[in-house]
Design goal:
Helices cover about 35% and strands about 15% of the residues. By secondary structure, the protein is an alpha+beta fold. The protein has 13 helices and 13 strands. It starts with 7 loop residues before the first strand and ends in a 5-residue tail after the last strand. It folds into 4 domains: about 10-85, N-terminal domain of TfIIb (Single Sheet); about 95-170, no CATH class; about 190-340, Intergrase catalytic core (hpI Integrase, Chain A); about 350-385, no CATH class. The protein has helices spanning about 80-85, 100-115, 125-130, 140-150, 155-170, 190-200, 205-215, 220-225, 255-260, 275-295, 305-320, 325-330, 360-370; strands at about 10, 10-15, 25-35, 40-45, 50-55, 90, 95, 230-235, 235-240, 250, 350-355, 370-375, 380-385. It has a 5-stranded antiparallel beta sheet, with no helix packed on it. Strand 12 and strand 13 (about 380-385) form a beta hairpin.
């Protein structure tokens, strides 16, 4: 048998063996395989793609098979693994572990699109996760057991139930949904100074502008990513692609934000021609560096939606708990979504704009600007409004 000196090389270590299938000496070590009888050295032929082992311990019918071609260095008492590889791979819930699940996910995506589900839903990813963690997709009890074992919050488990329920509707499977209920948690609300610190810490103009949009519009990050240049007209920003349970609407932005938007390159019809994952990774890096530099661990808890939570909470405070005002600003469809912002926190009343009026015409003019009367002294009417939240 031909031999060759063992050499180091990127991607593996060359072995002094010959492929029993192609009779090539271009053989490389392909790692160790742990079996019931000990470790087994595996080899890979770079010419024909066959894998083989020189140990006879693989003569047992091991359950771990792969789809690519496999052969074994034939020694006394050994078994050709190529025959084992041609056997049918293990079945999980009526699906082959690696072959049919992709087709099921593609069919599931087509069903969701046909039924009018949102395109950015995480249902397909959740279904794939359940399958990888041992769920039999055609057995509702198996899926419920897998969901119950996961260290997820009840809100995410409820989302997994909805995802599998849509799959059952597609496949006409009857099952009884578990009774998960979303936890009632208090949202994290950062300070305005903390949000400004993150915006100023951005070296990217695109990221800084994106965060400033979140702060001034109280919009969902997906809504800002869907903005187009035609949605910007002067100081009016139109949100035409609201997310689920939100309404479309318009909001007035500051001259500072208009200038930041005009500095961005217009290479696409979208203002931010990127995806959510890329923006989130960039934001996480900025947030972690700022938290270390400023020694403020609260910055690590800020997410894109924290800008919306801050805006809704401040609006609820400055409007004295006016639910309709907060609902209109946040563009909620249901008033139940707005109630979590009412009475959440109490802020200091030190950020007001003050105006006075002595005549009827002045009172009308000041009131038209969004000021509210809160005091009167010797015939002088005193009005105020928040600097950033005109009620």
């Amino acid at each position: 048998m031909a031999t060759q000196v063992v050499k180091k090389r990127r991607g593996g270590e060359r072995a002094s063996r010959e492929c029993p299938n192609y009779h090539s000496i271009g053989i490389w070590k392909d790692g160790l395989r742990e079996t019931e009888l000990g470790s087994v050295q595996r080899y890979l032929c770079r010419e024909c793609g066959f894998r083989f082992s020189e140990s006879a311990v693989l003569s047992k019918n091991l359950s771990n098979t792969r789809t690519r071609q496999v052969c074994e260095f034939l020694t006394e008492g050994s078994k050709n693994l190529a025959e084992t590889a041609r056997q049918e791979s293990p079945m999980r819930g009526g699906l082959k572990a690696e072959s049919e699940i992709k087709g099921i996910i593609a069919k599931y995506l087509a069903y969701l699109e046909r039924e009018g589900y949102a395109k950015d839903l995480t249902y397909p990813r959740i279904l794939n996760t359940l399958f990888k963690r041992g769920a039999s997709l055609y057995d509702g009890e198996s899926v419920k057991q897998v969901i119950a074992r996961q260290p997820w919050k009840n809100g995410y488990k409820l989302l997994a139930v909805y995802a599998y329920d849509a799959f059952c509707s597609m496949e006409k499977i009857s099952w009884q949904k578990p009774g998960y209920k979303q936890e009632d948690v208090i949202i994290f609300v950062p300070d305005e100074k903390e949000l400004d610190c993150l915006i100023s810490a951005c070296r990217s103009r695109r990221m800084a502008c994106f965060l400033q949009c979140l702060k001034e519009t109280f919009a969902d990050p997906s809504e800002i990513l869907g903005l187009k240049w035609i949605d910007l007209h002067g100081n009016i920003l139109t949100i035409n692609k609201p997310v689920k349970r939100h309404l479309a609407g318009q909001t007035t932005i500051s001259n500072k934000l208009v200038a930041m938007l005009n500095m961005l390159p217009k290479t696409s019809d979208r203002v931010f021609p990127t995806n959510y994952k890329a923006m989130r990774l960039c934001f996480n890096a900025v947030r972690n560096k700022a938290a270390i530099r400023l020694q403020n661990p609260r910055l690590r808890s800020i997410t894109f939606k924290s800008f919306r939570h801050w805006g809704g909470t401040m609006l609820a405070h400055y409007s004295n708990g006016n639910v309709l005002t907060v609902k209109k600003a946040l563009r909620h469809r249901a008033i139940q979504s707005t109630m979590k912002y009412i009475g959440l926190l109490q802020f200091k009343d030190d950020d007001w704009e003050i105006a006075t009026a002595t005549s009827v015409e002045e009172i009308k003019h000041v009131a038209s600007l969004g000021y509210q009367k809160f005091d009167e002294f010797q015939g002088v009417h005193v009005f105020r409004k928040p600097k950033k939240f005109a009620v």
